[in-house]
Amino acid sequence: MQIDPSHPRFKSLKIREKLVWGIKKGLTHPAGLLAHGRGEAFDYLLGEKTHDFAKKAIEAAGAYLISAKNPIISVNGNTSALCPNELVGLAKLLNCKIEVNLFHYSKKRVVIIENYLSRVDSKVILRSNKSSKIIFPDIASWRKIMLKEGIASADVVFVPLEDGDRAEALIRLGKKVITVDLNPLSRTAQTATVTIIDNLIRLLPLLIKKIKKLKMVDADNLKSLTINYNNKTCLNNSLKLISDRLKKSG
Ligand code: ATP
Ligand code: MG
Q1: 104 in ligand 1 pocket by Cβ < 6 Å?
Q2: Residue 84: which CATH number?
Q3: Is residue 146 pLDDT above 90, yes or no?
Q4: What is the pLDDT of residues 107-121, one digit of tens each?
């Protein structure tokens, strides 16, 4: 569909179109539209802006990812369709791999996503057929599949749009979980080590920029950025902002 750039919701409509395109290409599952809709509703309440609590979380996320021994980026159908270049750019910057992990799993869709991201740069894609699979205990969904050389051996997992139960399982395994979620009330947001309450599309370029800067910071200062970060405070600040905005418009 041709969207008129003068439409007041142009940006948001373009993103929707991209996901519809992702479904046609077999990258995105139709249920991804519902997940996106939930995100859009919260983005509306947040005023579609990157707030200070998100900037704080981006800084902590950057510090965790740079300090990690073995970071990994976990992607799904929505994130791959929306931000392929930024996800690959982030992996290159961190010198780490991207692993496809799906709630609505099919081998076919995993390969379609791997191929799609490989078109940007194949070197950063961890191919599911080239790494042995490990099944997470206690996870009811297909997100239980993890690759031995990927999520299974990672110490820090960057996973935008995660599911609550897997976030909890990753934490139980002793991993640090960096997530992106517009909903501060989701189980994922409440469980993660660092929750960036922002739209993935807005924040990825900011995270990349921040990591480039943090690469110049020494290990001790990176450590203090992670130690001094308080995820609960960021979540509370985001809820307060939403509540203040609602009160003002009431
Ligand atoms: P949980 O399992 O953590 O309780 P959930 O079941 O509420 O989460 P899911 O349907 O599993 O949510 O995943 C969708 C989540 O992703 C939603 O919380 C939504 O806010 C978020 N989301 C969707 N699109 C974006 C986006 N572009 N940027 C950031 N977050 C997004
Ligand atoms: Mg969920």
Answers
A1: no
A2: 3.40.50.12640
A3: yes
A4: 999 999 999 999 999
